């Protein structure tokens, strides 16, 4: 097998939420398990932190001694018809970018634009689309000023703004910024039956990769091997599309939250096997 650029195997820290490992213990445990990097799920507004709170958060994250590659920001109000609501979500995303810039290893903000309101039954869909494109341009320019990328996530839900590969290409083209690219969440692509071969359409436009398994019909965020996602085919296609960065494990909770450490360790080992099999780790 020819040599390929080395990827990092990361973990999104939301895996620990609701478990005894939430916060610093989970980040430290991730290093013990063997992860190369961390992604931070930001469910708060960094702009509302006091200087003391911000310094404490940064010190707490850095204490794990793992590079932070991506921050995850769900922005569900970018198309809200109330200007005050929409502007707040844009502002919060920019605040998350400012936080990301305080980690020298950070490469991108995983940006989740959300869904159409009222299931297309009240507001014109094209108008909502244009609002989300405009908001993403505003946040994308803010990211560029901080030498960061936005990584747009495709969601396998009926009214998601970016649900298909056609949606993703149209969105990236409409935004029209070089630093706004795609997140490939492998289980999301599998749920939407986007074939691995189609990923060549995103050549040079992939900023982040998420790894989790599912049964092919229901959203699951399971450790690889517990579902039927064809990881080898997807990882090979992502590699051949020119991606070199972090593939980050994303997990929901096991039946017993006290088993979260075993759940995460299982996902680490199975993902590592898949990455090694395609020559990227």
- CATH topology type: TIM Barrel
Strand segment count: 8
CATH class: Alpha Beta
User: Main β-sheet, in a few words?
Assistant: 8 strands, parallel, barrel
Classify the beta-strand content into a percent band. 15-25%
Give Rg in angstroms. 18 Å
Tally of domains = 1
What's the architecture, going by CATH? Alpha-Beta Barrel
Strand order of the largest sheet: 1-2-3-4-5-6-7-8
Tally of helical segments? 8
Distance between the termini: 13 Å
- The helix content is 25-40%
CATH level 4 superfamily: Divalent-metal-dependent TIM barrel enzymes
- The geometry reads as globular
Helix-strand blueprint:
Layout: E1 8-12, H1 24-33, E2 37-41, H2 51-62, E3 68-74, H3 83-100, E4 108-112, H4 125-145, E5 149-153, H5 165-175, E6 180-185, H6 186-191, E7 206-211, H7 231-240, E8 246-249, H8 260-277
Parallel strand pairs: 1-2, 1-8, 2-3, 3-4, 4-5, 5-6, 6-7, 7-8
Helix pairs in contact: 1-8, 3-4
């Amino acid at each position: 097998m020819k040599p390929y650029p080395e990827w990092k195997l990361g973990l999104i820290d939301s895996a620990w939420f609701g478990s005894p490992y939430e916060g610093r213990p989970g980040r430290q445990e991730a290093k013990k398990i063997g992860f190369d990097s961390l992604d931070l799920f930001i469910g708060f507004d960094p702009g509302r932190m006091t200087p003391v709170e911000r310094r404490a958060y940064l010190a707490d994250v850095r204490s794990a001694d793992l590079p932070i590659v991506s921050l995850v920001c769900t922005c569900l109000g970018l198309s809200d018809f109330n200007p005050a609501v929409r502007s707040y979500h844009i502002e919060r995303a920019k605040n998350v970018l400012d936080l990301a810039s305080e980690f020298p290893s950070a490469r991108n903000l995983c940006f989740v634009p959300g869904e159409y309101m009222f299931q297309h039954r009240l507001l014109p869909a094209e108008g909502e689309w244009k609002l989300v494109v405009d908001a993403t341009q505003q946040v994308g320019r803010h990211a560029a000023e901080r030498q960061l990328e936005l990584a747009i996530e495709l969601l396998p839900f009926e009214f998601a703004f970016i649900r298909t590969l056609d949606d993703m290409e149209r969105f990236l083209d409409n935004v029209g910024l070089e630093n706004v690219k795609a997140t490939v969440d492998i289980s999301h692509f599998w749920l939407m039956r986007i074939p691995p071969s189609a990923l060549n359409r995103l050549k040079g436009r992939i900023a982040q990769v998420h790894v989790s398994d599912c049964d092919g019909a229901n959203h699951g965020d399971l450790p690889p091997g517990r579902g039927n996602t064809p990881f080898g085919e997807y990882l090979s296609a992502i590699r051949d599309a020119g991606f070199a960065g972090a593939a980050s494990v994303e997990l929901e909770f096991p039946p017993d939250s006290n088993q979260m450490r075993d759940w995460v360790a299982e996902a680490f080992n199975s993902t590592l096997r898949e990455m090694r099999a395609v020559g990227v780790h």
